Amino acid sequence: MKGTYFKANFTIARKSKKNILLMGALVLFMVLFVLVVEAQNLGDNYRQWRSYYDSLEVNISYFDSSLLRKQEYKETYDNLNAQEGCIFSLQNGEVLSDPQTYLDGSITLFQTMLDGYRNNYLGASTLNVPPKYQLHQRLVTYKYLYRHHIPAVMNSKASATYLIYILNFVAIFIFFYILLISNDVWMVKLDHDTVLRNIPYRVEDEVKGKTMINLALALGPLLIGLVGAYLFAGLRNGFRSLNYPNVFYFNKIIAIPVWLDCLLFLFYTAVLVVFVTSLTLLLNQLTKNVYLTTFIGIALYVLTYLPAKMLKFIVWLPSAYLNVNDVLNGTVASKTGFAGLSLVTSGCILLVWSFILIIWFRHLVNKGGIAR
Fold it and tell me: Which stretches are transmembrane (predicted)?
């Protein structure tokens, strides 16, 4: 792409009030949301365990002698009692301030909770047991902590745990941020014809330039926000090592250090930027309307939340891979039943669709020009 044309486009994007507002809002949200976490005790694992323990006690008390005569009910009853014993072990680890004892008890508890799914907790209809895939996620996380002798942090206020919390949260809606950044990506050429007039260009140059600009507008604030979030949370609540684990899916659920998780998140976000830019270029050319472009983009994202039985039939569409969090933690693979839907596979599918959309966009421009 010619430098003059790229600079002109970049100047327009950089000075856009909409883009300035969006970038500033993203950075401030990522950094300052720790104040909300502190005030509301979001991500408080102690409170979650207390709630589950109360539910466990209620369900244990529910079983009576008539139910326990049936083997299928006795299996659930025995499992619930085993879980209660594991929780007592956790409490001993807390009292003795022994991180390894606490982690060992946690691992045993998660395994026992998973064992309870063998008969689907028959008879314990009101038990607030987490879904199976969430238990697998917690199990690999605590095994990582135990193996690397890292004490568990039971809240989301410290530097590393807050970074994990905000990373997982931002990953859910980062698609909308990219969509708003790029929803007028092709309209700019029409709206700023005095700036871009008489500067020669090719469609390929346009696509490359718009993509590079959107990458800068998306990844720059994200990187600043992640660093700022880690530092601000650390200064307020203490610093934790960036080796603290977060859940990641690559053909199976594993735990990886948060610094690596951040890099993979940025990598997949870059792929998402390429796809969204290709999508908005095409939609701008087709609709000549920013609002309609945004609406269609949102409608595409909504398909991500289809029931699992329906989602598995549209795995060849890009919709299933627009929620970054679901891709990285294995929710997409779990819901669709296709174990191969990891970050790499999802990224490749988005890139293939990006190529298709760009070819379609180029055809429309060459055929009909850019007139409104």
Answer: 162-180, 212-233, 253-283, 290-308, 338-361
User: What is the per-residue DSSP string for 78-133?
Assistant: HHHHHHHHHHHHHHHHHHTT-HHHHHHHHHHHHHHHHHGGGGTTTT-TT--PPPHH
- Give the sign of the dihedral formed by CA 121, CA 126, CA 127, CA 131: positive
Q: Are 230 and 163 contacting, i.e. CB atoms less than 8 angstroms apart?
A: yes
The mean pLDDT of 226-248, rounded to a whole number, is: 94
| Same domain? 257 vs 119 | no
Angle at 261 between CA 256 and CA 266, to 5 degrees: 160
Please count the structural domains in the chain.
2
170 and 116, same structural domain? no
- Residue 152 in any domain: the answer is no
Over residues 283-329, the pLDDT tens digits come to 998 988 899 999 999 999 999 888 888 888 888 999 999 999 999 99
Same domain, 78 and 213: no
CA gap 314, 321 in Å, rounded: 11
Q: pLDDT by residue (tens digit) across 162-212?
A: 999 999 999 999 999 999 999 988 886 655 554 445 555 577 778 888 899
**Residues 92 and 118 placed together within one structural domain of the fold:** yes
Domain region containing 177: 3-40+158-368
CA distances from 96 to 50, 89, 99, 231 (A): 19, 11, 9, 31
Report the amino acid identity of residue 170: V
Count the Cβ atoms, other than its own, within 10 Å of residue 332. Answer: 25
